[in-house]
Design goal:
Rossmann fold; five-stranded mixed beta sheet; 3 domains; BirA Bifunctional Protein, domain 2; alpha+beta; 457 residues; globular; eight-stranded mixed beta sheet
């Protein structure tokens, strides 16, 4: 009987050392820039109570939460009628109380409320951890993926939105990815819903138009019709969604269309202020007002932000916005927050496709000491200790294998230098240092060898 080959769940991935190196480059880049802007790190558990998660992401988002069965005999307390009836709505709350976090924002809101007396407002935090979504796996969409979140909570100032645009620009410039930042405001969307006469359908409208780029206007219109909008309202909405021109021209047209909507005009005012603030420190990347940008998550109340890579076909690689009521759900009203999230896995895929990772990435050891036998091994060990004291990563090949095998090991592991010591080197108190790229080899004392390796890029 053939042994079944092991595997992993769909939508998840294993990571080899070289891939880990690429991900660490991304994590280190965003961490450095977050810290340059004064943000502090926190972590939260992988699982949260379902009472914390449910109802925050909209109907579609809630369906994508991975639920965790209660420990032990989870079925023992379920009424027989409910169990036999297979009524998911009644059964699920009785067999599962926890779920894997869907994002880092809702757990952060819970964290803020829980530790409100131990943190200083405005509280600036960053968090780099995995999240889980029961989504259909496809290119750039995984069921387990890392988010790199950065938020400010306890401040209404639009300076925060402008700072996040700067952070986005700095991160992607550092990684070498050409991007476009798209912005909108939920208040503008609320004003548009009023303008077409369906204010109460704001959530339905945003969920539908958020799919514009993916499914096109015709299918969006069909979905709006299914969600209860009239043909007249859909026709009235169409020119707004297709509005073209500069951001200034778009805002001018919107100001006229939404002149009777107080909330819509407030959104336009906020967008203009963010654009005005950021003009003092202009971005290197493109910035565009996109009225089809809705971001379906229910908790956004103000600015919404989404970032797309310009040279790769991929979903958003960063996004976020302002949320005024999220902490209020957990008992701390009146504490506004705003933040963005970088999708590390998608960023990795973009960088890999564009070949943006540095050539030397994945060289975990800088030096390999060749093992010719016990005498030679013992001669090289003190050198390896000195190298490590100088911060140089190095290793000894564990067995006295054939020279070819040891050199192949160095080559496959991208180790740039090999140290060799035979009778000649030992008698002179020297070491032979071979540059694996150039093939150059020279005999040196330990101090000179360390100096050369230290100054190697």
């Amino acid at each position: 009987m053939a042994i079944q080959k092991p595997g992993i769940p769909k939508g998840t991935r294993d990571f080899l050392p070289l891939e880990i190196a690429g991900r660490e480059l991304i994590f280190n880049t965003v961490r450095r820039i977050f810290q340059l802007h004064g943000f502090k790190p926190i972590e939260t558990p992988a699982m949260e109570n379902l009472s914390t998660l449910l109802g925050k992401y909209g109907e579609e988002g809630d369906r994508l939460i991975f639920r965790i069965l209660n420990s032990g005999d989870f079925a023992s307390k379920v009424e027989e009628e409910i169990w036999q009836g297979r009524d998911t709505g009644r059964l699920t709350p009785q067999i599962t109380e926890k779920g894997l976090r869907y994002d880092l924002t809702v757990p952060f809101a819970r964290f803020v409320v829980q530790y409100q007396n131990e943190i200083t407002f405005p509280f600036k935090r960053y968090q780099i951890q995995p999240v889980w979504r029961a989504d259909r796996p496809q290119k750039g969409r995984y069921r387990e993926f890392f988010q790199c979140d950065v938020d400010v909570v306890g401040s209404d100032s639009l300076v925060n939105e402008a700072e996040f645009l700067q952070i986005i620009d700095e991160v992607f410039a550092s990684l070498g990815i050409k991007v476009i930042i798209k912005v909108n405001n939920r208040k503008i969307l609320a004003g548009i819903a009023q303008y077409i006469g369906f204010e109460e359908k704001l959530t339905d409208i945003t969920v539908a138009i958020d799919k514009m780029e993916k499914i096109g206007l015709e299918k969006v219109n069909g979905e709006l019709l299914e969600r209860g909008l009239s043909l007249e309202a859909i026709e009235k909405l169409k020119p707004v969604l297709l509005l073209r021109g500069s951001d200034k021209e778009k805002l001018g047209v919107l100001s006229e269309l939404l002149k009777s909507s107080e909330v819509g005009l407030k959104g336009i005012e906020e967008i203009r202020e963010v654009f005005d603030i950021i003009s003092n420190t202009p971005l290197g990347c493109a910035l565009e007002l996109d009225l089809t940008l809705a971001r379906g998550l229910n908790y956004y109340t103000g600015a919404i932000i989404e970032v797309k890579a310009c040279e790769v076909s991929m979903g958003s690689i960063c996004g976020g916005g302002r949320y005024d009521d999220l902490t209020g759900i957990f008992g701390l009203p009146g504490t506004s927050g705003v933040g963005i999230s970088f999708g590390a896995d998608r960023i990795y895929d973009v960088m890999k496709e564009l070949d943006l990772f540095p050539e030397g990435m994945g060289s975990f050891s800088k030096v390999l000491a060749v093992n010719f036998g016990e005498r030679e091994r013992n001669y090289c060990l003190p050198l390896l200790q000195k190298l490590r004291l100088h911060g140089i990563s190095c290793e000894m090949y564990p067995e006295p294998a054939k020279m070819k095998k040891q050199m192949q090991y160095a080559d496959k592991n991208r180790i740039p230098f090999v140290v060799l010591a035979g009778d000649s080197e030992i008698s002179q108190g020297l070491y032979s240092l071979k540059n694996m790229k150039s093939g150059e080899q020279q005999q040196l004392p330990a101090e000179s060898l360390i100096k050369i390796i230290t100054h190697h890029p």
